[in-house]
Design brief:
Length: 141
């Protein structure tokens, strides 16, 4: 696939990918990092066999977020805010407001209580409209 065409397709999907990443990570700056990593992986991949680029990108973003969530847990990061409180991360305030309204405080509370694999499955199945098998490397039960 042509690099310019891939860049155009990626840019057309960027907002949706950022929303998925934000829902998984709860941070706009981390969501931006995850989407940027998806671009790096896209630009380095042979996508000639990819039939559904939107699905491929969503999968890559979800896997990057899952890695970030696992890394968070292995470093035992603690949130700076008290439960139910959001931390501004210095991003564009208008965009932050739009994202916060789309997610809602109740969903963030639910997501905080889920493990990384459950979080990915919840967002994938509940919000993105995608239906797939189990999260790779995670057994049900």
């Amino acid at each position: 696939m042509d690099d310019e065409w891939l860049a155009e397709r990626f840019e057309a999907d960027r907002t949706r990918l950022q929303a998925v990443a934000y829902r998984l990570l709860g941070s706009a700056s981390e969501a931006d990092d995850a989407v940027q990593e998806a671009w790096v992986r896209l630009s380095r991949s042979d996508t000639s066999e990819v039939q559904n680029l939107n699905g491929w990108l969503t999968t890559v973003v979800a896997r990057v977020c899952l890695d970030m969530l696992r890394s968070r847990r292995s470093r035992r990061e603690e949130p700076l805010a008290r439960e139910g409180e959001l931390i501004p991360d210095g991003a564009d305030p208008e965009r932050e407001t739009m994202l916060a309204e789309s997610v809602g405080l109740a969903m963030l509370t639910v997501l905080e209580r889920l493990g990384p694999a459950e979080r990915v499955a919840f967002v994938r199945d509940g919000w993105s409209g995608l239906r797939a098998g189990p999260v790779p490397g995670h057994t049900a039960g």
